[in-house]
Specification:
Layout (H helix, E strand, L loop, with lengths): L3 E6 L10 E8 L6 E6 L7 H18 L6 E5 L4 H4 L2 E2 L2 E2 L3 E2 L4 E2 L7 H5 L11 H18 L5 H13 L4 E8 L1 E2 L2 E4 L8 H6 L4 E4 L8 H15 L10 E9 L5 H18 L16 E3 L3 E5 L4 E5 L6 E2 L4 E6 L5 H4 E5 L4 E6 L4 E2 L4 E6 L16
Parallel strand pairs: 3-4, 3-9, 9-13, 11-12, 12-14
Antiparallel strand pairs: 1-2, 2-4, 5-6, 7-8, 10-20, 11-13, 15-22, 16-18, 16-21, 17-20, 18-19, 20-22
The chain binds zinc ion (ZN).
The site of zinc ion has 4 residues, from loops.
């Protein structure tokens, strides 16, 4: 059976203007596990678009063989609003230009939406509890009316993802190595998945503070379990943000290999039949996100990096120099050091910066004092 593709129109912003999502569906609606994948919610993060193209081919072939035993939903581009935003010839896909902010922040709180209504309805059967919670989420989102185009996009994506067993949001960093964001409840459950993707870092946070897309679906379960400790309630949605390296790491060979890794994971999750090869050896341990230092620029100037991606550094090491060319040479260079000891995971491509901009992420193992209680994501 070929894949079924739907087009979901967004709310119209003006006469003569409509946008839509494309959704590819594989397997039987309602089959388990249900896996949801989307690309480029930050619309200018391109690697996921090419990965979804290759994954679509692999899934079509599996569908023809009748091998899709669960349900798989691919949203090949998650953000048609952002994809259409160009300024001076550059795609500006991170923030909604209509004032809606960062496309991957401030997603609605599904815990708040369903928690109260579950009072007195949960029982001793974990599976029945999971089904009840999923139904409550589906019904809550079905009843919500969009008030703007952006809201209609968020609603459409949430409705597709909310009752999935696995939600994978494909992003990328500026210049970076492959990494993954998860909540701690899904580690080491996701260890094979991280190994398949050859992740160089797995960053765990219960609440990163940003209400990102993935956490909208993962954290309600752990919060509901805490609210109703007398009832069995597993963390039933493994939702993660996959950072597919840097925004220029886009080529067929890389995307095909990533799509194959995702396909093997879909087999391991039980959504597609067949035996994947054993996962490659893990390239990292999971670490707490508050142990990763986001090294920020203290001044405006030109960034001259002192380290390379993938380099191991120590606390206090100089990561970069920020150079203010207006100053006399002996005063022009600001040393930027890291508080963490570990791997240099990301850098920025644009080498002119303002104060406060993130110059690098360094993956440490020990929680950092300045990251406690802080907003852990970038803006
Ligand atoms: Zn992103």
């Amino acid at each position: 059976m070929p894949a079924r593709s739907d087009r979901l129109p967004l709310m119209t912003v003006g006469p003569g203007t409509t946008r839509e999502l494309t959704v590819h569906r594989f397997g039987q609606p309602g089959a388990r596990p249900k896996i949801y994948l989307q690309a480029a919610l930050h619309a200018d993060e391109t690697p996921g678009l090419l990965v979804q193209h290759h994954l679509y081919g692999l899934l079509e072939e599996a569908e023809r063989r009748g091998a899709v035993t669960g349900e798989v939903i691919l949203v090949p581009y998650a953000n048609p609003i952002g994809l259409a935003q160009f300024t001076n010839g550059e795609n500006m896909g991170r923030y909604e230009q209509g004032g809606g902010g960062n496309f991957n922040r401030n997603w609605p709180d599904l815990f708040d939406a369903v928690a109260e209504g579950l009072e007195g309805r949960l029982g001793d059967d974990a599976e029945a509890n999971v089904a009840l919670v999923r139904r409550a989420m589906v019904e809550h989102l079905a009843a919500e009316e969009p008030g703007s185009e952006l809201h209609s996009l968020r609603l459409a994506l949430s409705r597709l993802a909310c009752d999935a067993d696995v939600v994978l949001d494909l992003h990328c960093d500026d210049q970076a190595l492959m990494h993954l964001f998860l909540i701690p409840a899904h580690w080491p459950q996701a260890a094979d998945f991280a190994a398949d993707l050859r992740c160089r870092a797995v960053l765990l946070a219960e609440d990163s503070g940003g209400s990102s897309f993935d956490e909208t679906f993962s954290t309600p379960w752990t919060r509901l379990a805490a609210r109703y400790p007398q009832h069995p309630l597993p963390a039933a949605c493994l939702a993660g943000t996959v950072e597919l390296r840097g925004r220029s790491d886009v080529d067929d060979a890389t995307a095909k290999a990533d799509a194959e890794a995702l396909f093997h994971s879909l087999q391991r999750f039980g959504a597609v039949g067949g035996n994947p090869p054993p996962p490659p050896a893990a390239l990292c341990e999971a670490t707490r996100l508050d142990a990763t230092d986001t090294v920020r620029s203290p001044a405006a100037g030109v960034v001259a990096y002192a380290v390379e991606l993938g380099q191991e550094v120590k606390k206090g090491d100089v990561i970069a120099w920020v150079v203010d060319p207006t100053q006399p040479p002996e005063k022009a260079r600001h040393a930027v050091t890291t508080q963490a000891s570990g791997l240099v995971l990301s850098q920025r491509a644009q080498r002119y910066v303002r104060p406060g901009m993130v110059l690098a992420k360094v993956v440490g193992k020990d929680p950092l004092p300045h990251r406690q209680g802080a907003y852990l994501l970038e803006d």
